[in-house]
Amino acid sequence: MSALGMFLLGLSTAIFLLAATVAKYWALGPSLGKLVLTLILYSLGNLIMLKLIKEFGMSISFSLSAAIQLVAVNVVALAFFSERVTSLQAAGIALAIVAVALITLGPYFQGR
């Protein structure tokens, strides 16, 4: 992945993370401003994803984005919003990360 691709992936992740955080604040205290900001942030993140899809393909772009967001959103939810997950839920999160890693890295291990 190129430096530009890594930058765009990081930028989209940061924007999606900010959007998820604003969405959580909207859930705690709904307001039109929070809703509009959430929609704008998710739209901006998806526009960046379009560039990544064009450059790296849909499967790689979305798989990497999903894995990174899965980890980042859980860190924010656990650290800043004091949310908790059960052992079974934690195992599911870990399996999801492994699944996305296998989907993303599988072709490289198979020599394609």
Describe, in plain words, how this protein is organized in 3D.
With 112 residues, the protein is mostly helical. The protein is 87% helix and 0% strand. It has helices at residues 3-28, 32-56, 58-80, 87-109. It is flat.
Shape: flat
Strand content: under 5%
Structural class: mainly alpha
Q: Tell me about the largest β-sheet.
A: none
Q: Give the averaged pLDDT, no decimals.
A: 90
- The helix count comes to 4
Radius of gyration: 16 Å
User: Can you tell me the residue ranges where pLDDT is under 50 for at least 5 consecutive residues?
Assistant: none
Binned, the helix content reads: over 70%
Q: Termini, distance in Å?
A: 15 Å
Order of helices and strands: HHHH
Q: How many DSSP-defined strands?
A: 0
Summary keywords:
single chain, 112 residues, mainly alpha, 4 helices, 87% helix, 0% strand, flat
Summarize the structure.
The chain is built from 4 helices and no strands.
Task: Give the secondary structure arrangement, pairings included.
Blueprint: H1 3-28, H2 32-56, H3 58-80, H4 87-109
Helix pairs in contact: 1-2, 1-3, 2-3, 3-4
